[in-house]
């Protein structure tokens, strides 16, 4: 197949087949890859462990050779681009922890500018400005003077992202950039990448296992499934087409179309009626589902009503001739147990 893609897109692949070669034997990880990225777009690549996400990112960045097909950066085959040209176009952050020797964080970030220096390797005023800008954007000024070897995994992750920002390629590729980060830093990094895509018109591709971050932040998703072409679309269309369910097909989980999350498949042993205001309704339902009750609007034998009582809430249970009141979900669950086992 020879797909026509406009040369103006920063990155596209053509009938790409990726995998590993050892002697005469090769192992295909993914094939029939025909993808493109636009400027100003944040793309999240999702797929189960081992499906080939890192292999794809490394092939696009010319670290691994394609088994067949090609990758084009600004219309030029990567096979024709030197490593320096690749580095000027693609800022890459991989998951492997690199040996930083005795470098400070500031030195490590400044390495991002080396694809632009001349033979002397000296950074210009403009280069130093970019380094300062990257440190500021990644919010790591407090780490600047530390030895990079002393950083935690999460801190080093942010520093490597700063180095990629300093490198300032038109394309940014990051393998699991939020893997070691706490919730606050995860949101900070995703928001940073999203606003960078918009404000600096970069094409940003990340691989991630964080479905909720991807669903709520990505302009596009690339869904990789073993032995099938990668599925592409905006998150909402893919959710409605059931593509996420198919990508992460699993006996123990269901993709919940209402919440955009995967939920454990449960076997309910009993129904129970529930009514009440939010968020009390949702969290009571959550606890009841966890205990094996299927929640319905109204049940013939047992109903719970959540009502306000002064400044607090109470849970009233009606079961045949029993009428009980509880002041927390925990006491409700204990009470239900004793009512049912009576
Ligand atoms: N250097 C290598 N040589 C041979 N096979 C490899 C090599 N690296 C990875 N593989 C294999 O290629 C397949 C894809 O691996 P890859 O690391 O790309 O998956 P992934 O989707 O990034 O997984 P994860 O989500 O666990 O990081 C796996 O089956 C893996 O065993």
TrEMBL record:
It comes from the Bacteria. SUPFAM superfamilies: P-loop containing nucleoside triphosphate hydrolases (SSF52540). Keywords: ATP-binding, Nucleotide-binding, Transport. Residues 11-251 form the ABC transporter domain. The keyword Phosphoprotein does not apply. GO terms for molecular function: ATP binding. Pfam families: ABC_tran. The keyword Protein biosynthesis does not apply. PANTHER family: IRON ABC TRANSPORTER, ATP-BINDING PROTEIN, METAL TRANSPORT SYSTEM ATP-BINDING PROTEIN TM_0124-RELATED. This is ABC transporter ATP-binding protein. It comes from Splendidivirga corallicola.
